[in-house]
Amino acid sequence: MYMRTFPLILMASMMALSYSRTPVVQDDQFLPVKGIINARDLGGYTGAGGRTVRTGKLIRAASLAEAKDADLAYFAGLPVREVIDFRQDYELKGKEDRMVPGAAYLRLPINSSAGINIEEEKEAEKIRNRKHFDVRKVIMIAAFNERAQHLAEQLYPNMVLQPDCQKQFAAFLQRVVAAEDGAVLFHCTQGKDRTGLASAYILAALGVDRETIIADFDATNRVYEKDVQRLSRRVRFFGGKEKEVAVVRSFIGANTANFTKTLDLIDATYGSMANYLTGPLGLGQEDIATLHNKYLQ
Asked: What does each C-alpha distance from 206 to 31, 79, 246 come to in angstroms?
């Protein structure tokens, strides 16, 4: 029974990956906040018509649960006017966001383990609630579990293809379209998978090229590189090969290779990212024009 719960446990406790090879992403895009992991400004990228994505308008991050007072003051000064949280209910237990002064707060929960058996979800919930639950030990064992390996590979495709996930990402895009002056900050638990996909959709809608979108996604791995390398070495020590290490890359980091394949999947399934944005994610041409006017300069 314990082995069968690995996929849900992993989904509940994603952290982030490594391997920074992203010269497109500038160091100053990482924001000067101490209690919030992987906080980055999407500003500075080149979008449609050679225009530049405005700085201080679109902020991606991990949870604000550990935010310092100075972090909150920094975001209030941008100013951040809306915080969008992709986490599910169980992820909020004891880890509720600290509020940014002057910002509205909206939850758009995205089930990143969409399609997992409900009985396994119940079992995983019991294990998550154990006082001495050790994420790294679970991932070490899960690296050698076929179901976990499959889930690691299907994590991003599931979120791209599942109608419930599409609905929530579509709602997110509409909030960004409708946002008033100021910045929108969006996040999940570790700011890597759900937040990474949300960033990709926004950047694509703004006309940012595929290479830059991949680079932005991969930049998460600068934050978690040491954790991934440490756990990957342990997996290899116990005989793990690339298939096993990929589980670590997916659940401690952001698996850029799988993300790139998922972009290919979008093209193969919908014809293009543009069709995906205007189809399942519901952006109209007026919405795209609004995004360009608000977030490009």
From this structure: 21, 21, 31
Helices and strands, counts by H and E, the chain? 14, 5
CATH number (domain holding residue 67): 3.90.190.10
Q: Is 167 exposed, middle or buried (0-12, 13-18, 19+ CB in 10 A)?
A: middle
Helix (H) or strand (E) holding 185: strand 183-187
Q: ω before 109 within 30° of 0 (cis)?
A: no
Give the H or E element holding residue 82: strand 80-85
Q: Give the pLDDT confidence of 215-230 residue by residue, as tens digits.
A: 999 999 888 777 777 7
Kindly report the average pLDDT of the chain as a whole number: 84
pLDDT higher than threshold 50 for residue 40:
yes
CB 199 within 8 Å of CB 217: yes
Let me know if residue 23 belongs to a domain: no
Tell me if the pTM is above 0.85: no
Structural domain boundaries, residue 127: 39-295
